[in-house]
Amino acid sequence: MSKIATHKGKVVQLNGVNVSVMIESQSACAACHAKGMCTLSDKEDKIIDIKVSTDRAANLSVGDEVMVAVSQQRGMQAVLLAYILPAIVVVVSLVAWLKVVPEPWAIVLALAVLALYYMLLYLFRNKLNSKFVMSIVDY
User: Fold this and answer.
1) Looking at residue 40, what is its pLDDT?
2) What percent of the residues of the chain are helix, what percent strand, and what percent coil, each to the nearest 5?
3) pTM value?
């Protein structure tokens, strides 16, 4: 059985079976008692869209506190696609380009390869969205 990663959120919009939930993404610094004295705290609100059953949507209203869940395996896959693979792509392409062109051009071309990577992610976003399904587990 796969583990589940959960996050608290608040319903901000209902549109049939589509529910928009605002979750507060924060770094470890944001939970610190001294965050007011420090400029390093990082706190950001994100809105995610979740499809729910008609019965569940009928029981929700704007402003409700909900618990959003995703399997931990899917979360790790998202981290791999968003952070780890792009870092590998940049380093490998930079090393490869350095063997062919001068350093300034190698840097520009490595960044172009990175842009191409993210463009491919964008083009396949619908397929990826179908794999990374979030659900409301508690309200």
Assistant:
1) 46
2) 50, 30, 20
3) 0.65
At 92, give phi and psi (nearest 5°): -65, -45
Among the listed residues 27, 21, 4, the one whose alpha carbon sits nearest the alpha carbon of residue 61: 21
Buried b (16+ CB within 10 A) or exposed e, 38-58: eeebeeeeeeeebebeeebbe
Are 110 and 94 in contact by the 8 Å Cβ rule? The answer is yes
Whether 21 and 10 have beta carbons less than 8 Å apart is answered as: yes
> Which residues are CB-neighbours of 16 under 8 A, at least 6 positions away?
57
Q: How far apart are CA 104 and CA 101, in angstroms?
A: 8
Q: Total structural domains in the chain?
A: 1
Hey, what are 4's tokens?
């589940």
